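Example 3.2
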Amino acid sequence: MKLFLAFLLILAMAIWGSDWVISRLGKVTHKKRLMLAGIEFLLAGILLGDHALGLLDKEVLNQLSPLSALVLGGIGFLCGADIELKRLRIFPSRFFKVALVQSVTTFVLVFALVGGALALFRSMFPAVDILMFAFAVAALAITSSPAVLAFCRNVLERSRDLDLFIFVTGLDGLLAIFVFSIPFSSRLPAFEGVQSWLGPLIWVAGSVAIGALLGLTLHILARFRCSQDELVLFIMGVVVLSAGVSSRFGICSLLVNASAGIVAANLEPAGARIRRAMVSMERPMYIALLILAGASIRLDSTWPIFMAVVYMASRIPGKFAGVWLGSALVREKTRTRAGVLLVPQGGVALAMALSMVRAFPGAASDGLLLFVILAFLVQEILATRLAQKIFLNDKEKC
C-alpha cells in the first residue's frame, strides 16, 4: 500500500507540476526563475524522504527502482534527442572549439581540486577508487543548464553571446555523459589480451552501439501510423528496454539512452515526430527526477558540505576561465563575465549523481548526491543573482 501510494504521489506531482510550471511561463522574473528551476520539487522529495515524512524511505525507493530506471533513461534520451545534427552544421566551427575548451578546463580544475579533497577522506572510504570517483565528479561538473539564458534573454538577444551559449549548453550534457561513462565502465570485466586502460573504452563503444541499435528500432516503430500518445508509449518502452539492457551488462544507462535519442531523433521522416513527443515528456521526467533525488539524499554526515564548497570553488572558476580561454583561442568576442551563464546545472547532473547511487551504493555515492544537490541549489541562486548584476550593467533589467 505504501509503495502504491508513493508511486501515485510521484505521478500526480509530475503531471500537476508540469502544468503548473507551464502556467507560470511568460516574463521570467528573479523569484520565478528559482521556482521554474524546480527547487520546490527537490524540497518536496526531501520532505517525503527518510528525514521527514518517511513515505519515500530507502525500502520504497528500492522497490521503485523500475521508475528510477525509466526516469534516468528518459533524461539520457532527452539529452540525446535535443541534439539536431542538421542544425549543428549552422554553427561556426569556433563554437565547437569554445565548447570543448571550456569543458576541458572545467574538468581539469574540478578533477584536481576534488581529487585532492577526497584524498583527505580516504580513510572513510577504503574501498573507493579516489581517482575514478574524482573523474566521475569532474565529468558531472561539465554539465550546464540554459536556464539563466531565458532569464537574461532580453539583453542577450542583441549580442552574439546568445547563440554561443545555447550551443555550449546543448553539447555540455552529451559530452558529460560520455566522459562520465568511462569511470562508470571501469568496474566492468576486462577483456583478455587487451590493455587494462582500453577496457572501459571498449565498454563505452559497446554502449553507444547498443543505444544506436535501440534508437534505430524506435525509428522503425515510429514510421508506422500511430498517434502521438502511442509514440510516447513506444519511446517509454525503448527507454525501459535500454535501462534493462544496461542493468544486465552493468553499462551506463544514460549513455545508452542518449545514443538511442540521437539516432532516433535524427533519422527522417520520424525524427521530427519523436522530438515533438519528447517535449510532452520532458517536464514530468524532470520533476520525477527531482523528487527521487531529494528523497534519496542521506543527511548523516557533514563531509559532503565541505565537498560541495570545493566542488563549486573549482567548477565556477573553471566555467569562467574556460569561456575566456576558449574565446581567446578562436578570437571570439565574448564577454569574460558571460561564463556565469554556464554556472547553473540541470537535470543531467542530478541524473548522473543518482546513477552513481544506484550503481555504487554506499556512503561515498550518498555523499556525492548530497553535495551535488547542495551545489545545484547554491549555483542556481548564485547564477541568477550574478547574471542580474552583470547584465544590468547594460542598463537593461533582466
